[in-house]
Amino acid sequence: MFKLLKYLKDYKLQLTIGPACKLLEAIFELIVPLVMADIIDIGVSSGDAGYVLRQGGVMILLGAVGLCSALVCQKSASIASQGSGTKLRNELFHHINTLSFTEIDRIGTPSLITRMTNDINQLQYAVAMLIRLVIRAPFLVVGAMIMATTINLKLSLIFLVASPLIALVLYFIMSKSVPLFKLIQKRLDRLSLISREGLSGARVIRAFHKEDKEQQRFNDANEELAKTAQNVGVLSALLSPLTYAITNLAIVAIVWFGGGLVDTGQLQTGDIIALVSYMTQILLAMVVVANLVVVFTKASASAARVNEVFELEPSIKSGSESELTLDSDKDFIRFDNVSFGYGGGDVLKNISFAVQKGETVGVIGTTGSGKSSLVNLIPRYYDTTSGSVSIGGNNVKNYPLLQLRKLCSVVMQKAVLFSGTIESNLKWGKQDATDEQMNRALEIAQAKEFVDKLPNKIETQVAQGGKNFSGGQKQRLTIARAIIAGAPILILDDSASALDFATDYALRSAIKKNTEGTTVFIVSQRVATVKDADRILVLDDGELVGYGVHKELFERCSEYREICLSQLSAEEVQA
Amino acid sequence: MNRGVVKRILGYTSKYKSYLIGAFLFAVISVCLTLLGPVLTGQAIDYIIGKGNVDFVSVAKILIGLICTTAGVSLFQWLMSLCINRVSYYTVRDMRIDAYKKLNNVPLAYIDTNAHGDIISRIINDIDAVGDGLLQGVTQLFSGIITIVGTLGFMVAINFKIAVVVVLVTPLSLFVAAGIARLSAKMFSKQQRTQGEISGFVEEMIGNQKVVSSFSMEEKNEQEFKRLNDELYICGKNAQFASSLANPSTRFVNGIVYAAVGVIGALSAIAGGLTVGQISCFLTYANQYTKPFNEVTGVISQIQTAIAGGARLFELMDSPNKTPDSENAKELENVKGDIEFDNVSFSYTPDRPLIKSFNLKVKQGQRVAIVGPTGCGKTTLINLLMRFYDVCSGEIKIDGEPVERLTTESIRQSFGMVLQDSWLFNGTVRENIAYGREDATDEEIIAAAKAAYAHSFIMHLPNGYDTVITEDGGNLSQGQNQLLCIARVMLSNPPMLILDEATSSIDTLTEQRVQLAFNKMMQGKTSFVVAHRLSTIKEADIILVMKDGNVIEQGKHSQLLRQNGFYAQLYNSQFAKS
User: Fold this and answer.
1) CA of A76: which chain B residue's CA is closest?
2) Which of B112, B124, B249 sits opposite A192 (nearest CB)?
3) How many whole angstroms separate alpha carbon B396 and alpha carbon B400?
4) Distance from CA of A59 to the nearest CA of B (A)
5) What is the SS3 string spanning B127-177?
6) For the segment B159-209, what is each residue's pLDDT rounded down to a tens digit?
7) What count of other Cβ atoms lies within 10 Å of the Cβ of residue B558?
8) Are the Cβ atoms of A230 and B232 closer than 8 angstroms?
9) Is residue A67 pLDDT above 80, yes or no?
């Protein structure tokens, strides 16, 4: 939890003024009974009605000043807690953005969302409580203890026994419940994972009529959560009865031993009353402390979860700070003996090839042969296990990430659009894109026709995930988005799979015509798509089994020929 | 404050009436004993008069009584907390169950058009807020009311007039609190809404991190996130401050009550109507009496968050349900597989008609292939067939029976469906394959996996069939995901089949083999196939060529080629030279 304290740094003012004002209010609260005592001792005994009224006015004044300082405290608390929470959220979001996919996959999106919302809310609440109560409660405890020692040293020993006992109870309950609070958060994560699956798989679940089973899965996770929450509840519910019992037993001891001291004349009856009221004061303060303990226990569990994210180091870091220049004499893109795996076995084995600027490269192979993995290495979404990938003579590991990402435009297999409008999605590629550029990109991507048919054209709303567009429409829009970026390397990772052949063909010719000088990688299952590429990479089970043009591969590479013959007739192959 | 929401939240607790009554009884006992404590202490002290004048026997008796009350207070306080804990956690649990049930009952259009992050936030965060509010609210309410009633009784017993003054002034603090609550309620619902927006945004951006980073949009996203976050900061700050006004304000009002009691008490003492001892006793009780008002206002922000959360939850619960089956709906049994579309029209949004007066007759056992440019309505036909969406006009008949007269469940169970977006859940490979038939034996599962050409890669996974699939099939390639979904359908072996781009991510070699397995499985069964690879549909009995929501050509492969129309054009484009 302490690692997160730096987010409070900017709120030193609020953190000082807030508790100070709260202290002021507490002091005023303590003065009020004294004023009341004066009313009774002086006003009533002398029968001075004017004095009584005047002191009554003083009490109201004290109350008003107390109100003002309380308001200042509350204002400070809300600024500091919400402000630091906001900052923390911004930082967390920023940090998540720097992480590589491996790390994000490890924690999972639903859990990241809970951490970003639920956990930070707990922390915010803790900060607010900190400002409101943390000074006041110990002030009352310590004050009461000091007052007790001035009355009678021997009896104050009771205080010295009772207070650590209470502290012990607090410690015991806290140490037992912290792990449970963590467990609760974990169970919440599970619940949100199941909800997410239920939403994304709604079609399949309904098709198999598995609503009941999914409901059962959810109910089980829900029941587990409720049980854990119950267990924590049983523990936390012990807190205030136990502290109450300890303080009251201490009161019994004070009265009993105090009685003995009075009997021998070492103590006055009034002193016992005072000691009892101080003990009650400690109890009240301790109840507050107990609540604080619960709040902070929850907060520390949340803090740990937030810190877990902060402690993740991105596995892929920017190479150099300054931009590198590309050496035009060297091969534009080069794979040297590249092997790669996601942790298990190697998905790519000893791959070497070179591509020149402006070439179109087709990548083909069976499912799971490593096509996507291969192109993912170029923009460095993952790092190679051995060997090197270089662009313009520089190893991709040496590029600043931003420059590298600007060099490559990638269209993924899974077409993703973001909520907004078509225009706002296209502008992801280039923020200051003109209408003309956007129209041109739509035209190249074969999307202009259907976009123009939409009632709001380019300003048509896009729902989250682009759900209001068909698979092929989404793919074409994502291609347009990548084209607008105008990067020197364009990677189409099986991104036209939902397009019919006519559109696919028109798309490829348009790309070829309009992106001269751009190096294009086309990953596809279709021979027709890669057939006319300048070079074709044939992958089989992670190995590069062929590299060349269609004709020569068809003659020499058996894997390629097999794929061709599964899709085309003999005349078509020759065409 | 939204009364309806509070009422519905309380409605959920009514199932646990016995716990609530228990909590109330325990609260009564523990509060009464708590009020008794100071009285006993006072009595004990009264026996300690001075040097040599202490009645130890009486003191001991009273102290034993005090120990007993203490034990009683502790015990009953604990029991009360347990009861309330139970009520609030069970309520939270029930609400979640209902919310999830609702998700299974909304029309798909709801799930398709609402941000998933926001829906999840309602199920997780908002319901949590309701639980916290219940826990705090009920605890304070119960002990508060009893303390008020108890002290009021004591005060009336001591001096009726002053008690009346106290009772008359207190509503002032309630009035102040209510005013503040009204002020902050709006801010709270705004805060919750912004929170939902943030969840939605995070879900979208973090969930698609790959795309985000490939466009280097991290910075722009952070700006947008910052904007949302700042909005949350402002409404969060205002909501928190507004609600925290309540506590000091009521405390101030209580201070006035205290001063008024003191002054009036002192004045009547001067006039001779009250003893000093009675004043001090009165002041103690006046303090005790006003405290619950404070405590209630102390948890007001939590209660308001709870109500705002409840409102968002009920908004989800109140969204319209999917059309239920008609009462006399029949089960679709012994499916033959005759399907008829009769003059069907459909659109997702009224202003954009998609399918217009569509007619089609499919006979038992026929293979129907649907081709056409993207966005022409192929997937929509399947949405209608599976009754994910309902037709706007016209009728769909299965075995001569209009689908409205059949149960949705039996229709869906008659179809096996493989979609382009393959869906796997966080479970083992085995569980995912057996999703459609849980009683399948291991041999059957392996046979299905072999038929779908998934067996060999499954055996390469670290734990074979027991490998746990991470969220959304993250540890498998798209093609492998699809093969598992195919194995799932192969295992369930339904009477009719829908393949919507089912093999789009699979290489053609594997696809051909899978296709053979499908052919074997589909012998004599009606099937619908949407595909772009025309090679996979050449053998279909009917090829529907769709464009802009209409069937423009219809027939067998060879017929259509002869027609030399749109289909021929599509087919030949595969081999066009680029």
Assistant:
1) B241
2) B124
3) 9
4) 6
5) HHHHHHHHHHHHHHHHHHHHHHHHHHHHHHHHCHHHHHHHHHHHHHHHHHH
6) 777 778 777 777 777 777 778 777 777 887 788 888 888 888 887 777 777
7) 9
8) no
9) yes
Q: For residue A334, what are the β-bridge partners?
A: A354, A390
- Convert the pLDDT of each residue in B395-416 to its tens digit: 888 888 888 888 887 888 888 8
Residue B71: per-residue pLDDT = 92
Name A435's Cβ contacts closer than 8 Å, sequence gap at least 6: A458
Interface contact flag, B266 A39, Cβ < 8 Å: yes
In 3-state terms, what secondary structure has residue B214?
helix
Q: If DSSP codes are grouped into helix, strand and coil, which group holds residue A537?
A: strand
Domains A138-313 and A333-574 share a fold: no
From A429, A351, A349, A345, select the one nearest A389 (Cα to Cα): A351
Query: What SS3 state is found at A319?
Result: coil
In chain A, % of residues over pLDDT 90: 0
Q: Any idea what the Cα angle at residue A120 is, between residues A115 and A122, rounded to 5°? A: 115
**Contact: B75, A241; criterion CB under 8 Å:** yes
Domains belonging to chain B, first-starting first, are: 3-318 (1.20.1560.10), 366-379+414-573 (3.40.50.300)
Q: Which residues pair with B397 in a beta bridge?
A: B340, B402
Residue of A nearest to B493 (CA): A208
* Cβ contact A66:A31 at 8 Å: no
Q: The domain A138-313: what is its CATH number?
A: 1.20.1560.10
In chain A, residues 280-339 whose CB comes closer than 8 Å to chain B: none
Per-residue model confidence as pLDDT tens digits over A350-409: 888 888 888 888 888 776 677 888 888 888 878 888 888 888 888 878 888 778 877 888
Q: Which residue of A has its CA nearest to B548?
A: A450
Cβ distance B73 to A108 less than 8 Å, yes or no, reads no
pLDDT attached to residue B2: 66
Indicate yes or no: CB of A412 within 8 angstroms of CB of B210: yes
pLDDT in tens, B504-525: 767 777 777 777 777 777 778 8
User: Exposure pattern of A206-228 as b/e (b: 16+ CB <10 Å)?
Assistant: bbbbbbeebbebbbebbebbbeb
Superfamily of segment(s) A333-574: P-loop containing nucleotide triphosphate hydrolases (3.40.50.300)
List, as one string, the DSSP characters of B413-460: HHEEEE-SS----SSBHHHHHGGG-TT--HHHHHHHHHHTT-HHHHHH
Please report the pLDDT score of residue B75 as a whole number.
92
Every domain of chain A and the residues it spans: 1-133, 138-313, 333-574
The pLDDT score that the predictor gives to residue B214 is 66
Residue pair A366/A545 in contact by the 8 Å Cβ criterion = no
A interface test, pick of B470, B471, B499 with most A CB neighbours within 10 Å: B471
Chain B residues within an 8 Å CB radius of A525: 505-508, 511
* CATH 3.20.20.70 holds for A1-133: no
Q: What is the pTM of this model?
A: 0.69
How many other CB atoms are found less than 10 A from the CB of residue B240? 26
Smallest CA-to-CA distance from A151 within A235, A312, A268, A5 is with: A268
Residue A517 Rama label (left phi>0; alpha psi -120 to 50; beta):
left
Q: Given this model, what pLDDT does residue A405 score?
A: 78
Instruction: Report how far residue B33's alpha carbon sits from residue B15's, in angstroms, rounded to the nearest whole number.
Output: 29
What are A425-470's pLDDT values in tens digits? 887 777 787 888 888 888 887 877 778 877 778 788 787 667 777 7
What's the pLDDT at B577?
Answer: 47
Residue pair B456/B483 in contact by the 8 Å Cβ criterion: no
Q: Do B570 and A265 touch (CB under 8 A)?
A: no
**Residue B14 binned pLDDT confidence (cut-offs 50, 70, 90):** confident
Residues B222-234 have pLDDT tens digits of 888 888 888 888 8
